[in-house]
Amino acid sequence: MPGKRETDARKAKARRAAIAAGTYRPMVDADKARGHVLQVHEAGLPYTTIAKLSGVPLETVNRLINGTPSAGRPPTTRLWPDTEDALLAVRADLVPDEGYALAVGSRRRLQALAWAGWPSAYVASRVPMGRNYLQAVRRGVTGSTMTAEKARRIKAVTRELWMADPVEFGVPASRASQVRTFASRNGWVSLAAWENIDDPAAEPVGVA
Question: Measured on CA atoms in the order 122, 123, 128, 134, is the torsion positive or negative?
Fold first, then answer.
């Protein structure tokens, strides 16, 4: 494997050749690609899927959105044009509803809703989806993937309920408290504890 010096020298040579040929494209501001990735993610695509569809390493996508918190580094500010082009080409409709998405993000979202006091029966009625199935997803016993359509529905309901008070939606205060206690006993954490909730390798940090 070539060392860093050799790799840097090869990159510099390729850059000089591209400049001479008039094909060199300098780095661009990352805001456009970041905004697009956030928009597609909001539409239902996990960052892992965005990385797979674009061919851009997941680590690069994570740095674009979250930076490197462990090293105190902010989100990426500059990207190579080829990386920007690849990310901008990703569309939420590229993964049909019958396609598959990793289940880890849905599991963590459902656990976070329980942490906030939302009973599984109420969440199931809003998705809508069977309560037993949602509970199985929440426990992580349904397998590593689920249909993209189900993942999108769970994400949408999480977005609707996360900042709301269950009691204001008719959930008895005692029941909401029971659900929170259950979530705490199982070690489930809040939505705010995840920097990238769809990344299987992510660990909860901060508020739990």
Answer: negative
Torsions phi, psi for 73 (to 5 deg):
-100, 135
In a domain, 76, yes or no: yes
Q: Are residues 88 and 129 in the same domain?
A: no
165 and 104 inside one domain = yes
Q: What is the pLDDT of residues 60-108, one digit of tens each?
A: 999 999 888 887 888 999 998 888 999 999 886 666 655 677 889 999 9
Q: Indicate whether 28 belongs to any domain.
A: yes
**3-state SS, residue 117:** coil
Range 34-57 average pLDDT: 84
Partners of 101 in the β-ladder: 146
Tell me the per-residue pLDDT of 114-160, one tens digit each, with 9 for 90 and over.
Answer: 999 999 999 999 998 898 999 999 999 988 888 888 888 899 999 99
Are residues 47 and 198 in contact, defined by beta-carbon separation less than 8 angstroms? yes
How far apart, in whole angstroms, are the C-alpha atoms of residue 6 and residue 9? 5
d(CA 83, CA 55): 9
The angle that helices 104-115 and 148-161 make with each other, rounded to 10 degrees, is 20
Query: CB of 49 within 8 A of CB of 96?
Result: no
pLDDT (0 to 100) of residue 208: 47
Residues 68, 17, single domain; the answer is yes
Measure CA 142 to chain center. Answer: 20
